[in-house]
């Protein structure tokens, strides 16, 4: 389990690098770092439990039980906090994404990240393609279209025009 959590934490940190323009918060990779720390602690606790069981030590098993109870309480607390603050996280991420979409010009690094995100997640805009209608890029192009990264991958000759939403 500790090895699995270590892999997940490392994967999240590695993936964060692709989306760091959307997550300007310096604390965004913190959950991944916490996951890696939890993996290390789990490994140590597992060793304590195995050694206590092997030696049949009442003190060791009592310590193991106390640690497991503390971990259980921490997990319940984390679940409750995640449930309570889920809307705040959602609005923070959406506002950051809106600001990145506002900077889109088709050539800067943020634009490349937006295109990559839309292609990889098969999405268009923050909520849908209509989000593009309020951006400077949309108003400056004057052709009522969204970036080509909004086009479905299975469609050919997509122009990104809003009068063909089935292609987006």
Automatic annotation (TrEMBL):
Residue ranges crossing the lipid bilayer per the database entry: 30-54, 61-85
Chief subcellular location: membrane
Pfam family name, one: Tetraspanin
Lineage: superkingdom: Eukaryota
Cellular component terms per the entry's GO annotation: plasma membrane
Topology versus the membrane: Multi-pass membrane protein
Keyword entries, A-Z: Membrane, Transmembrane, Transmembrane helix
Subcellular location: Membrane
Matches recorded under InterPro entries: Tetraspanin/Peripherin, Tetraspanin_EC2_sf
PANTHER family named in the record: TETRASPANIN, TETRASPANIN-36
Protein name: TSN36 protein
Species, as recorded: Nyctiprogne leucopyga
């Amino acid at each position: 389990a500790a090895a699995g959590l270590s892999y997940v934490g490392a994967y999240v940190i590695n993936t964060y690098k692709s989306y760091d323009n959307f997550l300007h918060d310096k604390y965004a990779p913190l959950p991944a770092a916490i996951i890696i720390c939890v993996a290390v602690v789990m490994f140590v606790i597992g060793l304590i439990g195995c050694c206590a069981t092997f030696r049949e030590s009442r003190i060791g098993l009592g310590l193991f039980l106390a640690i497991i109870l503390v971990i259980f309480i921490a997990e319940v607390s984390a679940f409750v906090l995640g449930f309570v603050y889920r809307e705040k996280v959602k609005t923070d991420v959406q506002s950051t994404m809106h600001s990145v979409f506002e900077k889109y010009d088709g050539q800067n690094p943020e634009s490349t990240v937006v295109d990559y995100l839309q292609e990889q997640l098969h999405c268009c805009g923050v909520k849908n393609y209509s989000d593009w209608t309020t951006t400077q890029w949309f108003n400056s192009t004057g052709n009522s279209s969204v970036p080509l990264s909004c086009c479905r991958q299975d469609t050919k000759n997509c122009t990104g025009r809003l009068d063909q939403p089935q292609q987006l």
